[in-house]
Amino acid sequence: MTELHISVQSTPNPNAAKFTLDRELPDGSGRSYFDAEAARGDQLAERLFELEGVRALLLVDNFITVTKTDDLEWSELVERIEGVIRSELGTTG
């Protein structure tokens, strides 16, 4: 499997960032979660909610929008979020 490329873009909401992948998400259909309980059964979303500071998720096509809590900076979260995405999609690097 080729290495997964992820680009991160800001959004109009300073507490949300868009993580765009170079391929479609495996389960394709759009879904959003506002807490870990709602994400139960979606392994990628469950793992992302395990990260401190993740407040909400939107997963559609080839991107994941992550909304964080006010108390953490993106510099504290981006690498950890990318690591979970790579781990769950079976790629490293």
Describe this structure in words.
This protein is α+β, with helices and mostly antiparallel strands and 93 residues long. It has two helices and five strands, in the order βββαββα. It has helices at residues 43-49, 74-88, and strands at 6-10, 16-21, 31-33, 54-60, 63-68. A hairpin with a 5-residue loop joins β1 (6-10) and β2 (16-21). It is globular.
Q: Kindly give the count of domains.
A: 1
The secondary-structure element order is EEEHEEH
Largest sheet: 5 strands, antiparallel
| CATH architectural group | 2-Layer Sandwich
| First-last Cα distance | 12 Å
List keywords for this structure.
93 residues, 24% helix, Ribosomal Protein S8, Chain: A, domain 1, globular, alpha+beta, five-stranded antiparallel sheet
At a glance:
It is built from 2 helices and 5 strands, in the order βββαββα. It is an alpha+beta fold. The chain has a single domain (6-88), classed as Scaffold protein Nfu/NifU, N-terminal domain (Ribosomal Protein S8, Chain: A, domain 1, 2-Layer Sandwich).
Please describe the topology of this protein.
Elements: E1 6-10, E2 16-21, E3 31-33, H1 43-49, E4 54-60, E5 63-68, H2 74-88
Antiparallel strand pairs: 1-2, 2-5, 3-4, 4-5
